[in-house]
Description:
Blueprint: E1 3-7, E2 10-13, E3 18-25, E4 32-39, E5 46-51, E6 58-60, E7 68-73, E8 78-83, E9 92-100, E10 116-117, E11 121-126
Parallel strand pairs: 2-11
Antiparallel strand pairs: 1-3, 3-8, 4-5, 4-9, 5-6, 7-8, 9-10, 9-11
Amino acid sequence: xxxxxxxxxxxxxxxxxxxLSCAASGRTFSSYAMGWFRQAPxxxxxxxxxxxxxxxxxYYADSVKGRFTISRDNAKNTAxxxxxxxxxxxxxxxxxxxxxxxxxxxxxxGLNEYRDWGQGTQVTVSS
Length: 127
């Protein structure tokens, strides 16, 4: 099991940017593929972005493609989500998640594939 703590959320105007961080502890971070999800009030949790162990492979939901960038620094045990051109519809609680993997180039985008989750960080985009 890996423990995950998100940070970097906040209030931003439409068109602005935020960078979320996900700090991991408890296990070898480089053995875990990472993902970001979000949940808006009254809606189901949805996939946003995923990255493989190596960081070489990434995958995005259509709703954020071209605006958000997922990355990781295995030396710092941290994953990131850079969010640009934010829209009011991006308002949600953002969660990072981890899944143990033996495939360095595989990413995961199914919510049920992830085993470990952070507590979430609120992102609010004002119009």
